[in-house]
Amino acid sequence: MTEPAKITIVEGPPPRFEPSTDSWVEAVSEGPRIHQSARCLLRTMNGVQLVERCRDAWLEGREAYLEYRTTSGLTEEALIVAARTGKVDAGQVLHLWLRLDRMAEMLEEATAGRDEDAEDDADGEDEGEGEDS
Questions:
Q1: Is residue 121 domain-shared with residue 82, that is, in the same domain?
Q2: How far apart are CA 30 and CA 79, in angstroms?
Q3: What is the mean predicted confidence (pLDDT) over 72-94?
Q4: Which of 34, 74, 79, 88 could form a disulfide with 99 if both were Cys (CB 3.0 to 4.6 A apart)?
Q5: Which pLDDT does position 87 carry in this prediction?
Q6: Are residues 27 and 86 in the same domain?
Q7: Is the model more confident about 74 or about 26?
Q8: Are residues 53 and 29 in the same domain?
């Protein structure tokens, strides 16, 4: 089995992921299950080479991943589904569109926690009203 290509963030803070609203990203990353897709923007000094690394992997039938550290210091990977370079006043940037399966899990956990809290609040309100009457 061949190794996937990787782009590793070696310095700086963890990337900021924004939910992707581009319909073409969903089409590119479609599969047997629905995936959470996101976009991130990274400053770089070699954006063209990083995009070429991804393209070479895709032409060879390999995957490409972004490897990064979370705020807690854990190493995570996200599948890159599209990449391009750009320029801003500060220099080159790398636009990455990613499949973030872990992000979907975290959103589900957060939503479940909020639902449970809302149920607890509702139960507490009912009990409080009954005691005051």
A1: no
A2: 13
A3: 92
A4: 79
A5: 92
A6: yes
A7: 74
A8: yes
Q: Kindly state whether residues 72 and 124 are assigned to the same domain.
A: no
Indicate the pairing of strand 64-69 with strand 5-8.
parallel
Longest CA–CA separation in the chain, Å: 72
* Domain match, 124 and 92 both: no
C-alpha dihedral sign at 35, 41, 44, 46? positive
CA distance 122 to 115: 11
Give pTM, 2 decimals. Answer: 0.71
Could you list the residue range(s) of the whole structural domain that residue 106 is in?
102-133
Q: What is the pLDDT of residue 25?
A: 74
DSSP per-residue codes, 31-82: -SS---EEEEEEEES-HHHHHHHHHHHHHTT--EEEEEE-TTS-EEEEEEEE
3-class DSSP state of 92: strand
pLDDT for the residue numbered 2: 84
pLDDT digits 0-9 by tens, 28-55: 766 666 667 889 999 999 999 999 999 9
Q: What string of DSSP letters covers 22-44?
A: -HHHHHHT--SS---EEEEEEEE
Same domain, 16 and 49: yes
Residues in a beta bridge with 69: 75
